[in-house]
Amino acid sequence: MPKLLVVDDEIDVREFAKNFFKRRKLDVFVAATGEEAIEIIDKERPDLMLLDVRLGQIDGIEILRRLRAKGNNTPVIMVSGINDIDIINESKQLGVLDYVHKPLILDELEKIVLAKLLK
Questions:
Q1: How far is CA 101 from the centre of its chain?
Q2: Are 117 and 4 in contact (CB under 8 A)?
Q3: Which residue of 30, 50, 85, 95 has the smallest Cβ count within 10 Å?
Q4: What residues form DSSP beta bridges with 7?
Q5: If 0-12 CB within 10 Å is exposed, 13-18 middle and 19+ buried, where does residue 118 land?
Q6: How many whole angstroms separate alpha carbon 109 and alpha carbon 101?
Q7: Domain limits of the chain?
Q8: What is the pTM (predicted TM-score) of this model?
Q9: Each residue of 40-85: pLDDT tens digit?
Q10: Which CATH architecture does the domain made up of 3-105 adopt?
């Protein structure tokens, strides 16, 4: 079963995405912080990560930097409520697959996630 990690500081987003994708037969893990996300990535080796840009102490971009520096190439879809061209460009330089804006449109998100996981 494909593994998906959802990293978001908003509990409602995490739980909604978790339930939504579990119904689509994915093994879903959730993290509220960057530290928690890195631990889960190291332990579970997800096939794909939905990563919020704005988190607490460690933001999504810093998580990406740390993963890439360790040679971890976990596929990532960035999720954000902000439309900052610098963040989008840096995300692309760090190898993200896609960049999805909040509020999330579930049909769109489902197509993107399933297309990446079920290649």
A1: 12
A2: yes
A3: 85
A4: 31, 51
A5: exposed
A6: 10
A7: 3-105
A8: 0.93
A9: 999 999 999 999 999 888 899 999 999 999 999 999 999 988 788 8
A10: 3-Layer(aba) Sandwich (3.40)
